């Protein structure tokens, strides 16, 4: 579909407004997300690709002080009766001198953008924390236990680059026992399949940042940054695969801040940051809710295993928005009472909770399992876990943005896999 942007310019008297919309949609917003846009699991990405995390709602955290955390690091086994009662997602970060459990020489799966130590991050304290739920202890990921549980099974991650971030963390955590064989059926880096041959366990990473059917608004333009989202249609690249999987971890969020056109019933129902004439401007939340609902329906219809919806992963820009020098330079977690969560993050999180609850009901009726991995609150407490300026080579080039969205590897995102294993154990 061609966008008649310049025709619009000639016809409308509101040239200034339209021009600013066009400039916004063509230049600023796409740059925000180019960082998230790279679906490629390469180990050698040039630093120039790291040019823009998304806009942030100023979180006004600078006034908060960071008091030292003094909690026991002792670990105990979770008893069965405790597992049932313990809310894994309410807790604090406590020191863990044993971490990290891998590094950039022992694990090849760390993507350049997240290889913070390689790019000279000077502090290492951020590596040495673990998540402590209030009512129980969360065991650190045990790679052997995990691989025994998934022997002869398969697991898929569906989502954007943060979903991939977790899959790479999992590969690194498992690397103490085994490295997988790449058995991807095509050279498409957006769809990777690995086989842990000693365990006959396959791991799939499936790229679908909007979760629903998506096309470029102008398919003839390779640089087109305007997407058409078919909010009521499945992205069959993953929905057609999931019937062969035993575990599925699905997540999304950040890409919905981009310029997009929403389609429903095969016709345009609205758009966001687009300069289409006579098209209703709809908020990202509108599209997000519908897209999530559609994906959960796809799971309901096609998947028989344990499905996990991982909640929104918050960003931590401070001192300005992402494109005005915003950065994340903290070196330690917040205590729970220090954070002021606000802004877009939590609205997406609210939608996830609501849609999860509705879908969970439906699933229950059919005897299917959908669970929520609600890590948003835990990650709000980790402003210290992002690459910041250490997601690329240290140059004077101002166009290189700070990445306060993805997570360093090793880093706090490793805890998502502690939680994942715990959730899998609870289901057994
Ligand atoms: C990585 O970990 C290995 C094994 O624990 C250790 O020998 C090595 O020094 C570490 N490398 C770096 C760069 O930290
Ligand atoms: C790993 O990190 C160290 C700094 O800790 C850095 O000197 C080295 O180049 C990195 N190696 C790789 C392979 O990323
Ligand atoms: C490996 O697991 C698959 C199921 O994921 C099963 O069909 C196959 O028979 C297994 N192969 C071996 C050698 O155990
Ligand atoms: C994974 O490796 C095992 C052992 O070699 C093999 O039996 C199995 O078929 C492989 N799985 C896939 C999906 O290729
Ligand atoms: C799409 O079509 C269905 C059934 O024809 C209708 O109920 C629904 O309101 C339509 N949705 C939109 C956004 O037009
Ligand atoms: C937009 O809608 C108005 C009123 O319905 C109509 O006169 C005009 O031609 C439409 N413009 C375009 C480009 O479709
Ligand atoms: C947060 O809680 C800790 C311990 O419960 C307390 O020492 C600290 O003063 C609190 N900080 C704020 C900002 O309330």
Automatic annotation (TrEMBL):
It comes from the Eukaryota. GO terms for cellular component: membrane. InterPro entries: TBL, TBL_C, TBL_N. It is a single-pass membrane protein. Keywords: Membrane, Signal-anchor, Transmembrane, Transmembrane helix. Residues 85-137 form the Trichome birefringence-like N-terminal domain. Residues 46-77 are annotated as: Disordered. The chain crosses the membrane at residues 15-36. Residues 138-423 form the Trichome birefringence-like C-terminal domain. It is found in: Membrane. Pfam families: PC-Esterase, PMR5N. Residues 63-76 have a biased composition (Polar residues). Belongs to the PC-esterase family. TBL subfamily. This is Trichome birefringence-like N-terminal domain-containing protein.
């Amino acid at each position: 579909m061609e966008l008649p942007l310049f025709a619009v310019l000639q016809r409308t008297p509101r040239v200034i407004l339209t021009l600013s919309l066009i400039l916004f949609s063509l230049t600023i917003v796409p740059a925000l997300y180019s960082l998230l846009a790279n679906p490629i699991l390469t180990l050698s990405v040039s630093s120039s690709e790291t040019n823009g995390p998304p806009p942030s709602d100023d979180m006004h955290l600078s006034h908060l002080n960071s008091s030292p955390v003094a909690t026991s690091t002792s670990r105990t086994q979770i008893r069965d009766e405790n597992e049932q009662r313990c809310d894994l997602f309410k807790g604090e970060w406590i020191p863990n001198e044993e971490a990290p459990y891998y590094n950039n020489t022992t694990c090849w799966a760390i993507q350049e953008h997240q290889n913070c130590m390689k790019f000279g991050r000077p502090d290492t304290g951020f590596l040495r924390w673990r998540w402590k739920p209030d009512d129980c202890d969360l065991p650190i990921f045990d790679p052997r236990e995990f691989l025994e549980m998934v022997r002869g099974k398969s697991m898929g991650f569906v989502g954007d680059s943060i979903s991939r971030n977790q899959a790479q963390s999992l590969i690194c955590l498992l690397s103490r026992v085994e490295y997988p064989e790449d058995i991807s059926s095509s050279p498409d880096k957006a769809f990777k399949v690995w086989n842990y041959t000693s365990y006959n366990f396959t791991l799939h990473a499936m790229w679908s940042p909007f979760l629903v059917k998506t096309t470029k608004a102008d398919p003839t333009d390779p640089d087109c940054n305007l997407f058409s989202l078919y909010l009521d249609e499945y992205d069959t690249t993953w929905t057609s695969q999931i019937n062969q999987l035993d575990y599925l971890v699905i997540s999304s969020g950040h890409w919905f801040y981009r310029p997009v056109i929403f389609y429903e019933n095969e016709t345009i129902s609205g758009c966001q940051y687009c300069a289409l004439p006579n098209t209703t401007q709809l908020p990202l939340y509108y599209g997000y809710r519908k897209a999530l609902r559609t994906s959960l329906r796809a799971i309901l219809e096609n998947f028989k295993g344990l499905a996990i919806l991982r909640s929104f992963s918050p960003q931590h820009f401070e001192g300005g928005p992402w494109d005005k020098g915003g950065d994340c330079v903290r070196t330690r977690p917040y205590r729970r009472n220090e954070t002021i969560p606000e802004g877009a993050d939590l609205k997406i999180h609210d939608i996830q909770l609501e849609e999860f609850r509705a879908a969970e009901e439906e699933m229950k009726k059919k005897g299917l399992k959908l669970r929520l991995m609600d890590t948003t609150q835990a990650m709000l407490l980790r402003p210290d876990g992002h690459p910041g300026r250490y997601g690329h080579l240290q140059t004077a080039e101002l166009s290189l943005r700070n990445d306060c969205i993805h997570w360093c590897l090793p880093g706090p995102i490793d805890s998502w896999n502690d939680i994942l294993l715990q959730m899998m154990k609870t289901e057994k």
